[in-house]
């Protein structure tokens, strides 16, 4: 019981005693109190009610000025499951000023599970509030198979609200996969396991079958900020990423994840007479990812120590002139997406044995917020290398033991080495020959030497898939 209820003029015993006397006893108790807090306490304490319990005392409270009183009045009316209350519910839905109260009225109608409620629920589908429409849909889905209900609900596929459309699409228009030749969800193709390919990722993925990988974690090359990432225009750069992630979508298992690490990037000015330009890469690629079917799940902020980033604030510290403020960029984004599916996360989890699920459980000490404070890693060969701790978290949080982890921009191979160290498998592509050779050099020093790994040219990979 919350603190505010300790100073009420009624007790739990008073409420239960009034309830024993039926509607008359409850009405007397309600009329004896003078505060909204007392009323809410009474209504909240009642518990279950017999269907024969009178409704008048609750109906009288539907016009109360306090929204919490009205809400609990509707909740208690809902316990009676009486079709005769439909006009009162309709009036609440049409005239109450609080969305939560309205939704509870719709919910009360739905909980009756009686065919007599169908016309009322169908009429609610025209409500301008999509949350109320969704509640009505929930009530109508109890009667799925009823011709009138199915007809009315299917029409909502053209509704302007995306949540309404997603529910209808799942219930009536979801694709049913019948291909018995496809691999079981936890498995992948042997020719992809612990393989790195030196080639343009778009060329490599032409030879990768649908639904082959479980998780993609990558950091795309920054637009014209490094020697290895020169593009003729920003539009060309975004189109390149669109091509890559479209193919990544195709090869990703149903309902599995894509995690993209990127940040806005500054292209330096060419002279003091011109301005530098900052490109909002994560925000621009997000639109394309959503359009191709990726569902946005989370934005994780990777925070670095200020000493590790380029100083942009120095000039401002000297003159303090407004409009010239440029803070030091100590963050990057990890944008988390899931391949669109009508199935819930639980379906993905249930594809694995109990043994694998237990073995894959996240260890104590996991990050509880979306701000990850991790120091970046510097490297003499690759200028933008993943820290091991960053890879470890993503792989641990978004994959199971034995899964195939894909990095289309493999760089020095940190994703691959981390995947192996965590009992996963890797598949990587890397276009730059220097970075690919650097990646191979780790084979002599660390875990690549203990676990068989293949480093192939594009031609070798093509022959390997045949």
Number of strand segments: 11
CATH architecture of the largest domain: 3-Layer(aba) Sandwich
Percent strand equals 5-15%
Oligomer: single chain
* Mean pLDDT over all positions: 89
Through-space gap between termini: 68 Å
Kindly identify the CATH topology of the largest domain: Rossmann fold
**Which outline best applies?**
elongated
Task: Count up the domains.
Answer: 2
Structural class: alpha/beta
Fraction of residues in H or I helices: 40-55%
Low-confidence runs of at least 5 consecutive residues: 1-6
| Main sheet makeup | 9 strands, mixed
Q: Give the radius of gyration.
A: 30 Å
CATH C-level class of the largest domain is Alpha Beta
What name goes with the CATH superfamily of the largest domain? Vaccinia Virus protein VP39
Number of helices: 21
- Strand order, sheet with most strands: 8-6-7-3-2-9-10-1-11
Furnish the topology, listing elements before pairings.
Layout: H1 12-20, H2 23-32, H3 36-45, H4 56-59, H5 67-80, H6 86-95, H7 99-112, H8 118-124, H9 130-140, H10 147-154, H11 162-172, E1 195-198, H12 201-204, E2 213-218, H13 234-251, E3 252-262, E4 265-267, E5 277-279, H14 281-291, E6 294-303, H15 314-319, E7 331-339, H16 345-350, H17 354-360, E8 371-373, H18 388-398, E9 404-407, H19 414-421, E10 425-430, H20 433-441, E11 454-457, H21 458-465
Parallel strand pairs: 1-10, 1-11, 2-3, 2-9, 6-8, 9-10
Antiparallel strand pairs: 3-7, 4-5, 6-7
Helix pairs in contact: 1-2, 3-5, 5-7, 6-7, 7-9, 8-9, 13-14, 18-19
């Amino acid at each position: 019981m919350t603190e505010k209820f300790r100073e009420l003029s009624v007790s739990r015993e008073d409420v239960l005693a009034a309830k024993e006397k039926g509607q008359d006893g409850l009405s007397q108790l309600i009329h004896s109190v003078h505060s909204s807090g007392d009323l809410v306490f009474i209504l909240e304490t009642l518990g279950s009610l017999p269907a024969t319990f009178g409704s008048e005392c609750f109906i009288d409270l539907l016009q109360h000025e306090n929204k919490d009183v009205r809400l609990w009045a509707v909740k208690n009316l809902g316990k009676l499951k009486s079709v005769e209350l439909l006009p009162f519910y309709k009036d609440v839905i049409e005239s109450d000023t609080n969305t939560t109260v309205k939704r509870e009225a719709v919910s009360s109608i739905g909980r009756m599970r009686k065919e007599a409620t169908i016309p009322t629920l169908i009429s609610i589908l025209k409500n301008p509030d999509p949350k109320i429409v969704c509640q009505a849909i929930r009530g109508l889905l109890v009667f799925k198979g009823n011709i009138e209900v199915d007809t009315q609900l299917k029409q909502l596929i053209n509704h302007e609200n995306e949540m309404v459309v997603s529910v209808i699409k799942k219930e009536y228009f979801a694709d049913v996969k019948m291909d018995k030749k496809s691999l079981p969800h936890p498995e992948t193709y042997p020719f992809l396991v612990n393989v790195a390919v030196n080639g343009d990722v778009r060329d490599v993925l032409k030879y990768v079958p649908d639904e082959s990988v479980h998780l993609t974690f990558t950091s795309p090359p920054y637009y014209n900020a490094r020697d290895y990432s020169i593009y003729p225009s920003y539009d060309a750069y975004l189109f390149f990423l669109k091509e890559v992630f479209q193919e990544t979508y195709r090869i990703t298992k149903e309902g599995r994840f894509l995690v993209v690490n990127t940040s806005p990037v500054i292209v330096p000015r060419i002279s003091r007479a011109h301005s530098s330009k900052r490109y909002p890469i994560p925000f621009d690629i997000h639109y394309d990812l959503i359009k191709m079917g990726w569902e946005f799940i989370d934005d994780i902020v990777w925070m670095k120590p200020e000493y590790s980033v380029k100083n942009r604030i120095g000039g401002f510290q000297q003159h303090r002139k407004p409009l010239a403020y440029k803070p030091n960029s100590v963050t990057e984004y990890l944008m988390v997406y899931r391949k669109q599916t009508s199935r819930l996360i639980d379906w993905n989890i249930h594809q694995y044995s109990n043994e694998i699920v237990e073995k894959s459980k996240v260890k104590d000490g996991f990050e509880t917020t979306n701000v990850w404070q991790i120091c970046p890693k510097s490297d003499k060969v690759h200028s933008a290398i993943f820290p091991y701790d960053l890879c470890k978290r993503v792989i641990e949080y978004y994959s199971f033991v034995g899964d195939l982890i894909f990095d289309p921009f493999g760089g020095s191979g940190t994703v691959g080495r981390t995947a192996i160290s965590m009992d996963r498998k890797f598949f990587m592509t890397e276009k730059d020959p220097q970075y690919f050779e650097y990646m191979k050099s780790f084979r002599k020093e660390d875990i690549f030497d203990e676990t068989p790994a293949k480093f192939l040219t594009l031609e070798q990979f093509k022959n390997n898939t045949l």
